[in-house]
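Let's practice the habit of predicting before peeking. Look at the sequence and jot down your guess about where helices and strands might fall. Then scroll down.
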Amino acid sequence: MPAERICVGAITGAFGVAGEVRLKSFCAEPAAIADYGPLFTKDGSRSFVVKLTRPVAGGLGARITGVKTKEEADALRGTELYVDRARLPSLPDDEFYHSDLIGLQVLDTGGVDQGRVVAVHNHGAGDILEIAGPARKSALMLPFTLAAVPTVDLAAGRVIVDLPEGLD
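Done guessing? Here is the structure:
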């Protein structure tokens, strides 16, 4: 996958029997997934133009190019959808694309290395950084809030975290 593509959603299965798919959008405004032009599979081997049809439980109903039957839609279940980064809007200084955070070095406020950000999760209540490092037995899950992560320095490739008592 080209490094300049960002995952903006995934196909979670078929919707109905006429080839519609159910999409899970990772965009701040879910319907924006259809605004960025063609979406690509992770390996870039396929592209889809998305036309949203309706909100559905757990996501959005959509028609995508090349999919005409329920079976074709079901075959795409789990397919992540990527867009060229250049097509995405610029973000304010205090917002970040998840892909920009993954891989950043994590230091605590005293400068002690805590590992690296290996994933960013969001289960509906806000973003959570998953931090792993050789000194950790298990990954640290830290809320991505200003209190817990006061500094994000993309240019330096690091974040500074203020670990709550007992998490260090």
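How did you do? The chain has two helices and 13 strands.
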